[in-house]
Design goal:
Layout (H helix, E strand, L loop, with lengths): L1 H18 L13 E8 L4 E7 L5 E5 L5 E4 L4 H13 L7 E2 L3 E9 L2 E7 L8 H11 L5 H4 L1
Parallel strand pairs: 5-7
Antiparallel strand pairs: 1-2, 1-6, 2-3, 3-4, 6-7
């Protein structure tokens, strides 16, 4: 009976730790996530980052097709950033790319919400640029990730 209880406790612990940890990949993404990117310029390269609800952060280079999983973001910070993105007034049409541009995309079960800007002389809503700056702070030293 004693061995059975140990086995039962061990089984419960293994199940708990394996079942409660959702792991995403770029081919098996969450249904809701936040993406941000910079693109354009001479090469037309786009470096995008995808923040999953569990804090996983991926970097994708559109030219080389390289995908890198970056250090995980704290779940509390991830939730705050997702809430900030959801609070943005997405009805404002922000589709003003320039030679070099920035993108924020909020993927929800209802669909995609996105903003693109970079056009000279155009200033997107402050809430978008502030969110973009906060998201950029998640990216480790750019020399290590380029």
């Amino acid at each position: 009976m004693k061995h059975f209880l140990y086995f039962l406790l061990l089984s419960a612990a293994v199940c708990y730790f394996s079942c409660n940890r959702t792991v995403y990949t770029m081919t098996d993404k969450a249904s809701e996530y936040l993406a941000f990117a910079t693109g354009g310029g001479f090469t037309g390269a786009i470096i995008s980052y995808h923040l999953m609800p569990n804090g996983q952060l991926f970097k994708v280079n559109n030219l080389s097709r390289d995908t890198t999983e970056l250090p995980k973001v704290k779940k509390s910070l991830t939730s705050q950033l997702m809430e900030r993105a959801a609070a943005i007034d997405w009805s404002v049409d922000v589709n003003r790319p320039g030679n070099v541009y920035h993108i924020i995309r909020l993927r929800t079960e209802a669909g995609d919400l996105s903003a693109t800007w970079g056009d000279t002389g155009y200033e997107p809503p402050t809430e978008m640029t502030e969110l973009y700056s906060a998201l950029q702070e998640l990216v480790p030293d750019k020399e290590d990730t380029e």
